[in-house]
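Appendix C. Worked example: GTPase Der
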Amino acid sequence: MAGIIAIVGRPNVGKSTLFNRLTGRREAIVDNTPGVTRDRIYAAAEWLDKSFTVVDTGGYTEGSSDDFESEIRKQARYAIDEAHVIILVVDGREGLSPLDEEVADQIRKSGKPHVLAVNKIDSPADDYVIADFLKLGFNDVFPISAVNGHGTGDLLDKVVGHL
Ligand code: GDP
Ligand code: MG
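Step 2, the predicted output written as structure tokens:
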């Protein structure tokens, strides 16, 4: 196996939509509503001459907001531990949240290669919103639309370069 690429981030930012786009699968459940318990989902993908495995995270459980957040942390931890490269996904329409900063922290501490995907930027005219996310301190920041594919080629070029 050439490598494992993990997609992490808080719920509803578009991780599963990105997973589906990268893998050409429809296995990940895309849903607006929290409350579905799922494990991580794996699928094979290729880009340029590289084959790799993509991991979608975000199985999370219903419960108090404390349980909810600790579950997200736990999922992120597992995914970061097993990954070779990590894609942190944030929601370009909602702006930065404290949970984004926490997961970014976990990723930086791992010392593994990582990139930031600012998702839901469906038009290149809105690429400027990545500026709001630069304070996360990631060197590589990509405006993307998991729905229509804007920016995902550039993202993948960078990610597979780390494999
Ligand atoms: P996850 O919880 O992070 O896995 O997020 P999902 O992939 O389930 O997506 C959550 C919601 O955001 C769904 O309604 C998606 O259709 C929507 N969404 C995901 N990516 C995009 C995008 O690039 N643009 C827009 N406009 N909506 C998106
Ligand atoms: Mg999901």
